[in-house]
Amino acid sequence: MRPAALFLSAVLTCAFGCAARRVAGADAPAGLREVGSVPLPGVEGRFDHFAVDAEGKRLFVAALGNDTVEVVDLAPNPGRQAGTIKGLKKPAGVAFLPGLNRIAVASGGDGKCRFYDARTLARVGEVGGLDDADNVRYDAAKRLLYVGYGGGALAVIDPAAMRVVAEVKLPAHPESFRLETGGPRVFVNVPDANNAVVVVDRDKRAVVATWRLKGAGANFPMWLDEPHRRLFVGCRRPAKLLVLDTQSGATGASVDCVGDADDVSYDEASKRVYVTGGDGAVTVIEQLDADHYRSAGEVKTAPGARTSLFVPELHRLYVAVPHRGAQRAEIKVFDTTGAGS
To answer: Strand, coil or helix: what is 303?
Structure first.
Protein backbone atom coordinates (compact mmCIF):
# COMPACT_ATOMS: atom_id res chain seq x y z
CA MET A 1 0.00 0.00 0.00
CA ARG A 2 1.31 3.44 -0.92
CA PRO A 3 2.25 5.92 1.85
CA ALA A 4 -0.69 8.22 0.97
CA ALA A 5 -3.08 5.29 1.17
CA LEU A 6 -1.57 4.19 4.48
CA PHE A 7 -2.03 7.67 5.89
CA LEU A 8 -5.67 7.83 4.73
CA SER A 9 -6.36 4.40 6.21
CA ALA A 10 -4.90 5.45 9.56
CA VAL A 11 -6.97 8.64 9.60
CA LEU A 12 -10.19 6.75 8.81
CA THR A 13 -9.43 4.06 11.42
CA CYS A 14 -8.83 6.70 14.07
CA ALA A 15 -11.97 8.63 13.11
CA PHE A 16 -14.24 5.59 13.24
CA GLY A 17 -12.56 4.27 16.38
CA CYS A 18 -12.89 7.58 18.20
CA ALA A 19 -16.55 7.88 17.17
CA ALA A 20 -17.23 4.37 18.42
CA ARG A 21 -15.60 5.16 21.76
CA ARG A 22 -17.68 8.33 22.10
CA VAL A 23 -20.91 6.39 21.53
CA ALA A 24 -19.86 3.64 23.94
CA GLY A 25 -18.98 6.25 26.54
CA ALA A 26 -22.40 7.87 26.19
CA ASP A 27 -24.07 4.49 26.80
CA ALA A 28 -21.93 3.55 29.81
CA PRO A 29 -22.13 6.18 32.54
CA ALA A 30 -18.98 6.61 34.57
CA GLY A 31 -19.35 6.09 38.29
CA LEU A 32 -22.32 3.68 38.43
CA ARG A 33 -21.33 0.01 38.46
CA GLU A 34 -23.38 -3.03 39.43
CA VAL A 35 -21.52 -4.92 42.15
CA GLY A 36 -24.00 -7.61 43.14
CA SER A 37 -27.57 -8.43 44.06
CA VAL A 38 -29.63 -9.75 46.96
CA PRO A 39 -32.11 -12.47 45.96
CA LEU A 40 -35.59 -12.24 47.51
CA PRO A 41 -37.04 -15.73 46.93
CA GLY A 42 -40.78 -16.06 47.38
CA VAL A 43 -41.45 -12.33 47.06
CA GLU A 44 -44.12 -11.63 44.44
CA GLY A 45 -45.61 -8.49 42.89
CA ARG A 46 -44.26 -5.01 42.60
CA PHE A 47 -42.11 -3.12 45.06
CA ASP A 48 -42.65 0.34 46.46
CA HIS A 49 -40.34 2.48 48.56
CA PHE A 50 -37.33 1.83 50.83
CA ALA A 51 -35.82 3.05 54.08
CA VAL A 52 -32.38 2.50 55.55
CA ASP A 53 -30.73 2.21 58.93
CA ALA A 54 -27.32 3.32 57.67
CA GLU A 55 -25.54 2.86 60.98
CA GLY A 56 -27.02 -0.59 61.50
CA LYS A 57 -26.58 -1.42 57.80
CA ARG A 58 -30.13 -2.62 57.22
CA LEU A 59 -32.44 -1.93 54.33
CA PHE A 60 -36.24 -2.02 54.67
CA VAL A 61 -38.10 -2.64 51.40
CA ALA A 62 -41.86 -2.24 50.97
CA ALA A 63 -42.91 -5.26 48.91
CA LEU A 64 -46.34 -3.86 48.08
CA GLY A 65 -47.53 -6.77 45.94
CA ASN A 66 -46.37 -9.31 48.52
CA ASP A 67 -47.98 -7.54 51.52
CA THR A 68 -44.63 -7.60 53.33
CA VAL A 69 -41.64 -5.48 54.24
CA GLU A 70 -38.39 -7.26 53.43
CA VAL A 71 -35.38 -6.63 55.66
CA VAL A 72 -31.93 -6.83 54.05
CA ASP A 73 -28.74 -7.06 56.09
CA LEU A 74 -26.16 -4.93 54.27
CA ALA A 75 -23.18 -5.95 56.41
CA PRO A 76 -22.16 -8.88 54.18
CA ASN A 77 -21.28 -7.80 50.67
CA PRO A 78 -23.57 -7.22 48.78
CA GLY A 79 -26.18 -8.13 51.43
CA ARG A 80 -28.63 -10.88 52.38
CA GLN A 81 -32.32 -11.29 53.09
CA ALA A 82 -32.54 -11.16 56.88
CA GLY A 83 -36.20 -10.96 57.85
CA THR A 84 -39.78 -10.26 56.82
CA ILE A 85 -42.62 -8.24 58.32
CA LYS A 86 -45.87 -9.96 57.35
CA GLY A 87 -49.56 -9.18 57.71
CA LEU A 88 -49.51 -5.88 55.83
CA LYS A 89 -51.95 -4.63 53.20
CA LYS A 90 -50.17 -3.07 50.22
CA PRO A 91 -47.30 -1.41 52.11
CA ALA A 92 -46.18 1.65 50.17
CA GLY A 93 -44.05 3.87 52.39
CA VAL A 94 -41.53 2.94 55.07
CA ALA A 95 -39.32 5.03 57.37
CA PHE A 96 -36.65 4.20 59.94
CA LEU A 97 -36.96 6.31 63.11
CA PRO A 98 -33.47 6.35 64.66
CA GLY A 99 -34.34 8.12 67.91
CA LEU A 100 -37.01 5.57 68.71
CA ASN A 101 -35.37 2.62 66.94
CA ARG A 102 -38.67 1.91 65.22
CA ILE A 103 -39.87 1.29 61.69
CA ALA A 104 -42.99 3.01 60.39
CA VAL A 105 -44.90 1.35 57.53
CA ALA A 106 -47.80 3.04 55.71
CA SER A 107 -50.18 0.63 53.99
CA GLY A 108 -52.55 1.81 51.29
CA GLY A 109 -54.66 -1.35 51.38
CA ASP A 110 -56.12 -0.78 54.85
CA GLY A 111 -55.19 2.84 55.58
CA LYS A 112 -52.91 2.12 58.52
CA CYS A 113 -49.47 3.26 59.61
CA ARG A 114 -47.95 0.50 61.71
CA PHE A 115 -44.94 0.77 63.99
CA TYR A 116 -42.40 -1.99 64.62
CA ASP A 117 -39.43 -2.47 66.89
CA ALA A 118 -36.47 -2.16 64.53
CA ARG A 119 -34.49 -4.85 66.37
CA THR A 120 -37.11 -7.57 66.84
CA LEU A 121 -39.57 -6.52 64.08
CA ALA A 122 -42.38 -6.93 66.62
CA ARG A 123 -45.40 -4.64 66.12
CA VAL A 124 -45.69 -1.99 68.83
CA GLY A 125 -48.77 -0.06 67.65
CA GLU A 126 -50.60 1.55 64.76
CA VAL A 127 -52.53 4.58 63.55
CA GLY A 128 -55.64 4.06 61.40
CA GLY A 129 -57.91 6.18 59.26
CA LEU A 130 -55.28 6.91 56.58
CA ASP A 131 -57.02 5.80 53.40
CA ASP A 132 -54.61 5.07 50.52
CA ALA A 133 -51.60 5.76 52.78
CA ASP A 134 -48.52 6.26 50.64
CA ASN A 135 -45.17 8.04 51.12
CA VAL A 136 -43.66 8.57 54.58
CA ARG A 137 -41.07 11.10 55.78
CA TYR A 138 -39.58 11.66 59.24
CA ASP A 139 -38.70 15.02 60.76
CA ALA A 140 -35.96 13.81 63.11
CA ALA A 141 -35.42 17.24 64.70
CA LYS A 142 -39.04 17.51 65.87
CA ARG A 143 -39.68 13.77 66.01
CA LEU A 144 -42.74 13.97 63.82
CA LEU A 145 -43.77 11.58 61.06
CA TYR A 146 -45.51 12.78 57.88
CA VAL A 147 -47.72 10.39 55.90
CA GLY A 148 -49.31 11.26 52.56
CA TYR A 149 -52.77 9.77 52.13
CA GLY A 150 -56.31 9.96 50.78
CA GLY A 151 -57.70 12.38 48.25
CA GLY A 152 -55.24 15.00 49.44
CA ALA A 153 -53.66 15.27 52.89
CA LEU A 154 -50.54 14.94 54.98
CA ALA A 155 -51.06 13.38 58.39
CA VAL A 156 -48.68 14.61 61.10
CA ILE A 157 -48.06 11.79 63.57
CA ASP A 158 -46.32 11.69 66.94
CA PRO A 159 -44.56 8.32 66.54
CA ALA A 160 -43.74 8.01 70.25
CA ALA A 161 -47.40 8.32 71.24
CA MET A 162 -48.54 6.77 67.92
CA ARG A 163 -51.32 9.28 67.32
CA VAL A 164 -52.20 11.90 64.70
CA VAL A 165 -51.55 15.42 66.03
CA ALA A 166 -52.43 17.45 62.91
CA GLU A 167 -53.47 17.27 59.28
CA VAL A 168 -52.58 19.40 56.27
CA LYS A 169 -55.12 19.50 53.45
CA LEU A 170 -53.80 19.23 49.87
CA PRO A 171 -55.52 19.69 46.48
CA ALA A 172 -55.02 16.03 45.45
CA HIS A 173 -53.37 12.79 46.55
CA PRO A 174 -49.71 13.38 47.43
CA GLU A 175 -47.04 11.33 45.72
CA SER A 176 -43.40 11.83 46.71
CA PHE A 177 -42.67 14.72 49.07
CA ARG A 178 -39.54 16.11 50.73
CA LEU A 179 -38.91 17.97 54.00
CA GLU A 180 -36.24 20.64 54.09
CA THR A 181 -33.96 20.55 57.14
CA GLY A 182 -32.98 24.23 57.15
CA GLY A 183 -36.54 25.53 57.17
CA PRO A 184 -40.19 24.56 57.70
CA ARG A 185 -41.18 23.72 54.13
CA VAL A 186 -42.43 20.47 52.59
CA PHE A 187 -42.40 20.09 48.79
CA VAL A 188 -45.17 17.79 47.55
CA ASN A 189 -45.89 16.27 44.14
CA VAL A 190 -49.64 16.36 43.40
CA PRO A 191 -49.91 15.18 39.76
CA ASP A 192 -53.72 14.94 39.88
CA ALA A 193 -53.92 18.68 40.60
CA ASN A 194 -52.90 19.74 37.08
CA ASN A 195 -49.35 18.44 37.49
CA ALA A 196 -48.49 20.74 40.38
CA VAL A 197 -45.95 20.90 43.16
CA VAL A 198 -47.35 22.42 46.35
CA VAL A 199 -45.29 23.91 49.16
CA VAL A 200 -46.43 23.32 52.74
CA ASP A 201 -45.27 25.31 55.76
CA ARG A 202 -44.80 22.80 58.61
CA ASP A 203 -45.17 25.49 61.26
CA LYS A 204 -48.37 26.94 59.80
CA ARG A 205 -49.51 23.48 58.66
CA ALA A 206 -50.90 24.96 55.49
CA VAL A 207 -50.14 25.17 51.75
CA VAL A 208 -48.27 28.41 51.07
CA ALA A 209 -47.47 28.06 47.34
CA THR A 210 -48.52 26.12 44.25
CA TRP A 211 -46.20 25.67 41.29
CA ARG A 212 -47.61 24.42 37.96
CA LEU A 213 -45.10 22.37 36.00
CA LYS A 214 -44.38 23.31 32.40
CA GLY A 215 -43.24 21.00 29.66
CA ALA A 216 -43.96 17.72 31.50
CA GLY A 217 -46.42 16.14 33.90
CA ALA A 218 -47.36 12.95 35.76
CA ASN A 219 -44.84 14.04 38.39
CA PHE A 220 -44.29 11.20 40.84
CA PRO A 221 -40.71 10.99 42.23
CA MET A 222 -38.89 13.93 43.82
CA TRP A 223 -35.59 14.80 45.52
CA LEU A 224 -34.45 17.95 47.30
CA ASP A 225 -30.96 19.38 46.75
CA GLU A 226 -31.15 21.78 49.66
CA PRO A 227 -27.64 23.32 49.46
CA HIS A 228 -28.24 24.42 45.85
CA ARG A 229 -31.92 25.30 46.47
CA ARG A 230 -33.05 22.95 43.74
CA LEU A 231 -35.86 20.43 43.53
CA PHE A 232 -35.57 17.45 41.17
CA VAL A 233 -38.97 16.32 39.89
CA GLY A 234 -39.32 13.14 37.84
CA CYS A 235 -42.10 13.20 35.23
CA ARG A 236 -43.61 10.40 33.14
CA ARG A 237 -45.46 12.38 30.44
CA PRO A 238 -43.09 12.91 28.75
CA ALA A 239 -40.18 11.21 30.52
CA LYS A 240 -38.26 14.18 31.88
CA LEU A 241 -36.36 15.32 34.95
CA LEU A 242 -37.32 18.90 35.76
CA VAL A 243 -35.13 21.06 38.01
CA LEU A 244 -37.02 23.71 39.98
CA ASP A 245 -35.72 26.68 41.95
CA THR A 246 -37.02 26.21 45.51
CA GLN A 247 -37.31 29.96 46.04
CA SER A 248 -39.39 30.83 42.98
CA GLY A 249 -40.68 27.51 41.67
CA ALA A 250 -39.26 28.34 38.22
CA THR A 251 -38.03 25.47 36.07
CA GLY A 252 -34.35 25.95 35.34
CA ALA A 253 -33.58 22.75 33.45
CA SER A 254 -35.25 19.80 31.72
CA VAL A 255 -33.43 16.56 30.88
CA ASP A 256 -34.69 13.37 29.20
CA CYS A 257 -34.82 10.35 31.52
CA VAL A 258 -36.00 6.74 31.75
CA GLY A 259 -39.72 6.09 31.34
CA ASP A 260 -42.09 5.20 34.20
CA ALA A 261 -39.83 6.95 36.72
CA ASP A 262 -40.67 6.29 40.37
CA ASP A 263 -37.55 7.32 42.31
CA VAL A 264 -35.01 10.14 42.03
CA SER A 265 -31.91 10.66 44.16
CA TYR A 266 -28.97 13.05 44.20
CA ASP A 267 -25.35 12.19 44.96
CA GLU A 268 -23.80 15.34 46.41
CA ALA A 269 -20.28 13.90 46.34
CA SER A 270 -20.24 13.19 42.59
CA LYS A 271 -22.83 15.80 41.52
CA ARG A 272 -24.95 13.14 39.84
CA VAL A 273 -28.69 12.53 39.77
CA TYR A 274 -30.03 8.97 39.50
CA VAL A 275 -33.51 8.36 38.04
CA THR A 276 -34.93 4.82 38.17
CA GLY A 277 -37.89 3.76 36.05
CA GLY A 278 -40.01 0.78 35.13
CA ASP A 279 -38.69 0.83 31.58
CA GLY A 280 -35.69 -0.97 33.04
CA ALA A 281 -32.86 1.48 33.53
CA VAL A 282 -31.19 4.04 35.76
CA THR A 283 -30.63 7.36 34.00
CA VAL A 284 -27.50 9.12 35.22
CA ILE A 285 -27.53 12.92 34.93
CA GLU A 286 -24.52 15.10 35.68
CA GLN A 287 -25.00 18.41 37.50
CA LEU A 288 -22.69 21.01 35.96
CA ASP A 289 -24.06 23.78 38.17
CA ALA A 290 -27.41 24.55 39.81
CA ASP A 291 -29.14 25.20 36.48
CA HIS A 292 -27.15 23.15 33.98
CA TYR A 293 -27.31 19.37 33.59
CA ARG A 294 -26.44 16.79 30.98
CA SER A 295 -27.27 13.14 30.51
CA ALA A 296 -24.42 10.72 31.18
CA GLY A 297 -26.31 7.74 29.76
CA GLU A 298 -28.20 4.83 31.29
CA VAL A 299 -27.45 1.60 33.13
CA LYS A 300 -29.81 -1.29 32.45
CA THR A 301 -31.64 -2.85 35.40
CA ALA A 302 -34.76 -4.94 34.61
CA PRO A 303 -38.37 -4.41 33.47
CA GLY A 304 -40.51 -3.05 36.31
CA ALA A 305 -37.51 -1.99 38.42
CA ARG A 306 -39.02 1.40 39.28
CA THR A 307 -38.01 2.00 42.90
CA SER A 308 -34.62 2.57 44.45
CA LEU A 309 -32.74 4.14 47.33
CA PHE A 310 -29.39 5.91 47.29
CA VAL A 311 -27.42 5.56 50.54
CA PRO A 312 -24.60 8.13 50.54
CA GLU A 313 -22.99 6.72 53.70
CA LEU A 314 -22.40 3.42 51.90
CA HIS A 315 -21.90 4.85 48.36
CA ARG A 316 -24.56 2.47 47.11
CA LEU A 317 -27.69 2.68 44.97
CA TYR A 318 -30.17 -0.12 45.66
CA VAL A 319 -32.76 -0.97 42.97
CA ALA A 320 -35.73 -3.31 43.51
CA VAL A 321 -36.43 -5.83 40.73
CA PRO A 322 -39.80 -7.66 40.74
CA HIS A 323 -40.29 -11.32 39.87
CA ARG A 324 -41.53 -11.62 36.29
CA GLY A 325 -41.29 -14.99 34.56
CA ALA A 326 -37.63 -16.01 34.57
CA GLN A 327 -36.69 -12.65 36.11
CA ARG A 328 -36.18 -13.19 39.85
CA ALA A 329 -37.11 -10.83 42.66
CA GLU A 330 -33.96 -9.17 43.93
CA ILE A 331 -32.26 -5.98 45.03
CA LYS A 332 -29.59 -4.92 42.57
CA VAL A 333 -26.64 -3.15 44.17
CA PHE A 334 -24.67 -0.41 42.39
CA ASP A 335 -21.45 1.23 43.51
CA THR A 336 -21.53 5.02 42.98
CA THR A 337 -17.87 5.88 43.60
CA GLY A 338 -16.68 5.17 40.07
CA ALA A 339 -14.24 2.54 41.30
CA GLY A 340 -13.47 0.10 38.56
CA SER A 341 -15.60 1.90 35.98
So the answer is: coil
Task: Confirm whether 261 is domain-assigned.
Answer: yes
Question: Is the sign of the CA dihedral 78, 315, 187, 52 positive or negative?
Answer: positive
CA distance 102 to 126: 12
Cβ partners under 8 Å of residue 11, min gap 6:
none
Given a contact cutoff of 8 angstroms between Cβ atoms, the answer to whether 133 and 112 are in contact is: yes
Q: Are 29 and 299 in contact (CB under 8 A)?
A: yes
Residues 192 and 172 sit within 8 Å (Cβ to Cβ): yes
Q: Burial code of 198-226, b = ≥16 C-beta within 10 A, e = fewer?
A: bbbebeebebeebbebeebbbbbbbbbbb
Number of domains in the chain: 1
The predicted-structure confidence for 159-202, as pLDDT tens digits, reads as follows 999 999 999 999 999 999 999 999 999 999 999 999 999 999 99
| Residue count (the chain) | 341
| pLDDT surpasses 90 at 301 | yes
Rounded to whole angstroms, how far apart are CA atoms 52 and 213?
31
Q: What is the CATH number of the domain that holds 260?
A: 2.130.10.10
Mean of all residue pLDDT scores within the chain: 91
* pLDDT interval class at 30 (50, 70, 90): low
Q: pLDDT digit string (tens) for 93-121?
A: 999 999 999 999 999 999 999 999 999 99
SS3 177: strand
Structural domain that includes position 236: 182-306
**Contact, 231 vs 197, CB < 8 A?**
yes
Fill in the amino acid letter for 214. K
Whether residue 215 is predicted with pLDDT greater than 80 in this model: the reply is: yes
